[in-house]
Design goal:
With 285 residues, the protein is α/β, with parallel strands linked by helices. The chain has a single domain (3-282), classed as LigB-like (Protocatechuate 4,5-dioxygenase, Chain B), CATH 3.40.830.10. The chain is built from 8 helices and 10 strands. It has helices at 15-20, 30-45, 96-108, 125-134, 158-174, 207-221, 225-238, 246-255, and strands at residues 3-10, 50-60, 64-67, 71-76, 88-93, 113-116, 145-153, 178-184, 265-273, 276-282. The strands form 2 sheets. An 8-stranded mixed β-sheet has the order 6-3-7-2-8-1-10-9, with helices on both faces. It has a two-stranded antiparallel sheet with strand order 4-5. Helix 3 packs across helix 5. The relative contact order is 0.22.
């Protein structure tokens, strides 16, 4: 029987890749990168063989979609921020069987879902960035298979994403996989205006967003998810939640929704990045 071995909310900011490169921003995201490596280390110690990523950078307009190709390989440049991510190599194995099982469970729960094993369907950087750092220095025999799920759900209900997340857990438990589940997306997500973008690389756009993000993290650390779930729709709207925060709804659906009371462990403390609020945090099972 399969199981979720670790669940986390993580960042995927493209400045993490910029942090690797020589230049004025070298090392600017060392803490975030170290957080990804630590989450990966813990997951592999728990026997993880597969990563399921709720990717808020994958936009879909209709239905819920799973990229469960057999093999992913390429060179990625961001069309959104090509001056941050350019010519990034990647190669991962997929897990079509788990993707198909997730779609089956979600459809049975009346959430219209399609699983895709299409060689030309590429991964988005909400998956590629964390997988890059979670595989750094990892031996070949401990590489994770990757399943990416669209979580920028433009015309969807958060309630359906809670239901979808619960279906993901049921599917994992029916599988033979040990799974690391990642909600890959920001907290507040109001990008800095262009004229101040460079000077605001390490800040929030608005003090309001920063203060609400800190309050949210406090709720998480205290296990107050009934309150957080009640505020999530307004939080996503008024603080410009990335992809309307469907990744977070999916993660919480997987963990039990408003009844979840785990006290979150912060791995990378909350930080500002190009106007947005970011974190790496483990949600105990």
């Amino acid at each position: 029987m399969g199981e979720v071995v670790l669940a986390a909310k993580i960042c995927h900011v493209p400045s993490m890749y910029l942090s690797e490169l020589p230049g004025p921003n070298h090392g600017c995201r060392e803490q975030a990168i170290a957080g990804h490596k630590e989450i990966s280390r813990r997951a592999r110690e728990l026997g993880a063989d597969t990563a399921v990523v709720f990717d808020v950078h994958w936009l879909v307009n209709s239905g819920y979609h799973i990229n469960c190709g057999e093999h992913f390989k390429g060179i990625y440049t961001s069309n959104e921020l090509p001056h941050f991510i350019k010519d990034m190599d990647y190669e991962y194995q997929g897990c079509p069987e788990l993707g198909a099982l997730i779609a089956e469970e979600a459809n049975a729960a009346d959430v219209r879902t399609l699983a895709h094993n299409i060689p030309s369907l590429e991964l988005e950087y909400g998956t590629l960035v964390p997988m890059r750092y979670m595989h750094m220095g990892v031996p070949d025999d401990q590489q994770l298979k990757v399943v990416s799920i669209a979580a920028w759900c433009a015309w969807h209900r958060l309630e359906d994403s809670f239901t979808f997340g619960a279906a993901v857990r049921r599917a994992i438990e029916k599988s033979d996989r040990k799974v690391l589940v990642l909600a890959s997306g920001s907290l507040s997500h109001r990008f800095s205006d262009d004229r101040i973008a460079q000077q605001n690389l390490n800040n929030w756009s608005r003090e309001f967003d920063k203060q609400v993000d800190h309050h949210v993290v406090k709720l998480w650390q205290e296990g107050r998810f009934k309150e957080f779930c009640a505020m999530l729709p307004d939080y996503a709207e008024h603080c410009y939640g990335e992809g309307k925060m469907h990744d977070t709804a999916m993660l919480l659906g997987l963990l039990g929704g408003p009844e979840y009371s785990g006290k979150v462990e912060v791995i990378t403390p909350l930080f500002g990045s190009s106007g947005t609020g970011q974190i790496n945090a483990i949600f105990p099972l």
